[in-house]
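step 4 of 6: structure.
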Amino acid sequence: MSIIEVDGVTKTYRQYKRFPGLLGSVRSLFTRQYVEETAVRDISFSIGEGEAVGYLGPNGAGKSTMIKMMTGILVPTSGSLRVLGNIPHEKRKQNSREMGVVFGQRSQLWWDLPVMDSFDLHKYVYRLPESQFRSNLDFCTELLSMSSFMQKPVRQLSLGQRMRVEIAMSLLHEPRILFLDEPTIGLDVIAKDQIRQFLRTVNEEKKVSIILTTHDMKDIEAICSRMIVVNKGNLVYDGSVSHLRNQLGNEQRVTIDFRFDPGTIETPGLTLIQDNGVRKTFLFERSHTTVFECVSRLAAQYPVEDASIETEDIDSVIRKLYQQLDQKERERREIG
Amino acid sequence: MTLRLFWKLVRLLMKERMEYRGDFFLAIAAQIISYTGDYIIIWLFIQKFNHIAGWTWPEIALLYSISLFTYALGAAFSFVQMRDLEGQVNNGTLDALLVKPVNPYLYLICRGFNLGYIAHLVVSGSVLIWALTALDLEWSAMQIIYLVLTIISGALIQTGILTTIGATSFIWVRSGFLFNLFFKIKDFISYPLPVFGTFIQILLTFVIPFAFINYYPASFLLSRDTMLLSDEVMWLVPLMGPLCCLAGYRFWMYGVNRYQGAGG
């Protein structure tokens, strides 16, 4: 069953023209000239209950706009959008009980009061029965190890602690969908890891659907099996993470340490990209032979001390996807 | 938005204030001194001229106290909330409000309920009670009810106007200058309306209904005739508050819709 249905959704912002200078600002008041900027262009996808989806794209790709439309904050300019069977902005209050929303950089906590007070208020806002509130809070407190700072004022928390609090708070009312807008931005490795593990647990055990935007591909690898990639308002990829990797990440980097410098080496399938004498680095492009065959062939001919094979990381896969898109666009322009 | 939630917010707001209690009490002391000064200036003024437009010192004290008391009540629910709305729209914190299962307007005004206005209430409340005793009026039950309704209505007018100004930040992004204008115009109602010319009287009655906050109800309680409204209409004066507040609320919701891209 799908809980989010996005069908041909477009969002354009109107920006009224501003004129420079003092006279210009007076003129701005009276003219109605504007430029339309399309943040989201004709996007369609559907998300099933219990899925974890990464929503990815460079800055200004329209990620936040999409999240805001799904949560009912913004209204699409055209297209149809249904979340939990409802049109989000029309049933905003009703849907909000079933949704958790975390905006990475905008805190809604009470800065000067202990963390517990913000949780407590949440209980009143969502009218939660004490038992439900308690058991959910205990669950989060334990998995996110929050007990040490429950009584500390929010202003004294580290960024990582604060983000854990925000995420815990978004789950207290047992939402069916959790939206996270850049939940790991600015966090250290350990904090990121803990949040990723927690989100995976929530998705797998509590069956909460997760939609998260991020710039960190590791978030997506750790939490999401599916990703949607957008660029300049357009949807450019929707599918599994491993599929995209297979499609684009067909390069591997092979570094070989020789016992002594073997001189020039000619091996089919491997292209030399760096030569430091005894250490040489090759690029392997997937073809009819495997990388192991190539390396073992080398090892049979030359005295090999050590060899390492690196698969391209997902970051460079994504980079490649963006580059391909840019190139396509350029070609299209040249033809047109 | 339930009463339980409101009390919870008030408890948290009190706790928050007490984190910086020195600052809080100092600010209250400063406000009390400042407003006492305002009263003294008006009092000195009347010492010199005996009356302003025929109004004596206790009458003026009543007029000014209603204005200040209702301002404190109304502004506690709206002034800072509406002034900061501009910033909330710009940095996106308003979004968090829109994903809660509560009415965004009611939550916003209650979340920002400002305990700092206690100083205004103490000063104006005391002078109000003194003025009522000094005036030696004959009190009927109807008049007491009328006074209570006047205060509620006045607070609602102030909230309504401040809300309307706040809502303009959804449309123009900047609304600061309108708040300055609000305080400038509000200064007019420290004095009886007949002090001013016809234009200002019409302005404060039919365009921006500031005169309904204190001048008309006070005239009615003091059995004074007014230029623009007849005696019978006076009973309807307390209706202006709910009307004003409703209009402000509607305009605010229209603003939110516009912000969301639904209307406008």
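step 5 of 6: annotate
 - Residues 3-260 of chain B form one domain.
 - Chain B touches chain A at residues 2, 4-5, 8-9, 12, 15-16, 19-20, 91-93, 95-96, 98-102, 107, 260-262 (CB under 8 Å).
step 6 of 6: archive
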